[in-house]
Amino acid sequence: MVGIVNPLRPIEDFLTNLLEWLHTTAGLSWAWSIVALVVLVRLVLVPVTVRQIHSMQNLQAHAPEMKEIQQRWKGDKQRQNEELMKFYRENKINPAASCLPIVLQIPIFISLFYVLKGFEREVFPDYPGSSLDFIGLVNITEPTKDGWGPLLLVIYVASQLTSSYFMAATMQKAQRIMMMVLPIVFVPFILNFPTGLMIYWLTTNLWTTGQGVVTRRMMPRPNLGAQPKSSRTPPKEPPATPAKTTSSKRKPGVPTTDGAAPVSAGPPRRVKRKRSGGGKRR
């Protein structure tokens, strides 16, 4: 019987080799090697992160127009989604770009879980004398619920809420609430995760929070004044120019600029009145 092929096996082998290199060549402990792993992963994701930030800024800039579409079709959800998708295409908006850094980290997160799960049994024996402790508080291979792990868990929840705040700034109200509630909902599930995995996720959350603060100050928002308006937004009509009127009072003999014939100069023409009665005067 052919065994099941693990699609994450190459990532697991790469992470194991990278952690060993950080421990032996860079001279870091196993716990700080995990922190360094986060830094390396986030540096690789910098181009994706910049794209994510621009996408979020673009969403913020077009938020009033999207809200108008939602209000216009609030009674027809299907039509509302169709109109929003058309709006995204016309304005080159990618709503999924804001989630790309997290999506790309999920395979790394899962692979690191399996690496740490068998770390003490498969990797640690090759390095006698090394320590699995993190700042003297926790063992990276033990469950998060042991020792000072709950303290890391509290810091993790706080950091996750903060990073979710920056990521959910452009989302709808329901999505924003879900992003803020998920870290608390996940707490019972991650109590048995290896503490090293919690160190990884805690570090990446702190990175995301710092990145959000820095980019908000350094990266200007896109100037949509120079961009063409969406075809779904009616253009402003130019102000109507007043029609040229012919003045009723013109100076005699002076030609006009509107093409009308000049008024002739000279004495006014006399009009003879007809006598009433038609009889001869005696």
Molecular structure report:
The chain is an all-alpha fold and 282 residues long. The protein has one domain (9-221). Helix content is 54%, strand content 1%. The chain contains eleven helices and two strands. Strands 1-2 form a two-stranded antiparallel sheet. The model is unreliable at 224-235 and 243-249 (pLDDT under 50).
Briefly characterize the structure.
By secondary structure, the chain is mainly alpha-helical. Helix content is about 55%, strand content about 0%. It has helices at about 10-25, 30-45, 45-60, 65-70, 75-90, 100-115, 120, 150-165, 175-185, 185-190, 195-220; strands at about 135, 140.
The overall average pLDDT, rounded, is: 75
Distance between the termini: 146 Å
Subunit organisation of the chains: single chain
Give the radius of gyration.
38 Å
Biggest sheet: strands side by side, in what order? 1-2
Attribute tags:
54% helix; two-stranded antiparallel sheet; 282 residues; mainly alpha; 2 strands
Describe the protein's topology:
Elements: H1 9-24, H2 30-44, H3 46-61, H4 63-72, H5 77-90, H6 100-117, H7 119-122, E1 133-134, E2 138-139, H8 149-167, H9 173-185, H10 187-190, H11 195-218
Antiparallel strand pairs: 1-2
